[in-house]
Amino acid sequence: MSIAQLPGQQKAKRILQHALSSGKVSHAYLFTGPPGSGRMAMANAFAKALFCTSGGDDACGHCLECRKFDHGNQPDLHVVEPDGASIKIDQIRELQRELSYKNIGTERKIYIIQQVETMTLQAANSLLKFLEEPQSPVVAILLTDNGQAVLPTIRSRTQWVPFMPLVPHDMLQTLSQEGVPQLLARAAVHLASGLNACREIIQQNGFAEMRNVVIQLGKDSLTRFTAGMISAQQHVFKTELGEQPQLLLSMLVLWYKDMIHFQSGRHEALVFIDQVDWIGKHAFGRSADGYVKCMEAALEAGKRIRAHVSPQLAVEQMLIRIQEV
């Protein structure tokens, strides 16, 4: 995948594509941002563009080097990740040995270090010496969740590339391109931070069924209290879905939020887009403040479950509270 094809991260893209188009590629970059923001995917796309022989601000995808990269046959790319809980000095020494060999058909060597903040002090000092005396055809791409946790001496010798949390719209677009069902993707992107987490949620057994149960429970909680109690008992706590009460409550929050979206005319923001007809008929049955209180009731139920209250009891008390709103 090329830099341009990756979702979001416009600032990171501008920094990297300017370096490529201007020919002013730094010897070291520090990609810093939260989990799920696509740092590794961007590191791979940037490395591919650096190996590409067509020039320009991105990989062409067609030249020999791009094809080698896509097939995992790029011997001048090296990836280091923690061995256990940390990156150790032997790993950095091995990397330096690999980088000392003559290039195989490419102009530069590239190494990517994941979770660079986990380096032991000895490993960090060994890497620092390498950064202080960079070999011109070598480019380092260091990845971290927290740039401030990286040694200041290493930070000062790298170009920072900031990554922001991916917004739901960007994740939804990518998941749709991957063929993920639209209705499941619309829910997942509001429940997880980052594409990988979204994919994990969607692939969970029962996620589609949970969505259907939330729709029924959401409707019953607003219009038929007794039916809501029965739905919770029969479709949640007497099934395997009862093992994921926090997911249920998080999706219920999205259901009540959809009512506010509809009231505000933001129909494109609806998560449960297939229920727009029902939502349109019932959304104005309560005020926006009333739906906020419904959301607060669901969040409070989640907090009580984390405090070891029975999930069924917490959900039933939530339904009672929603009736009183």
Structural class per helix/strand content?
A: alpha/beta
How many separate domains make up the residues? 3
CATH class of the largest domain: Alpha Beta
Helix content: 40-55%
What about the largest sheet? 5 strands, parallel
- Give helix and strand order, one letter per element, not per position: HEHHEHEHEHEHHHHHHHHH
What is the CATH superfamily classification of the largest domain?
P-loop containing nucleotide triphosphate hydrolases
Strand order of the largest sheet: 2-3-4-1-5
Characterize the overall form. elongated
Distance between the termini: 49 Å
Strands, count: 5
Question: How many H/I helical runs?
Answer: 15
Low-confidence stretches: none
Under CATH, the topology of the largest domain is which? Answer: Rossmann fold
Portion in strands: 5-15%
Query: Under the CATH scheme, which architecture of the largest domain would be assigned?
Result: 3-Layer(aba) Sandwich
Summarize the structure.
Helices cover 54% and strands 8% of the residues. Helix 10 runs antiparallel to helix 11 (225-237) and helix 12 (245-263) runs antiparallel to helix 14. By secondary structure, the chain is of the alpha/beta class.
Entry keywords:
alpha/beta; 3 domains; Rossmann fold; 325 residues; 54% helix; 8% strand; Zinc Finger, Delta Prime, domain 3; elongated; five-stranded parallel beta sheet
How would you describe the overall organization of this protein?
The protein has 325 residues and is an alpha/beta fold. Helix content is 54%, strand content 8%. It is built from 15 helices and five strands. The chain has a five-stranded parallel sheet, sandwiched between helices. It is elongated and about 75 Å long. The mean pLDDT is 90.
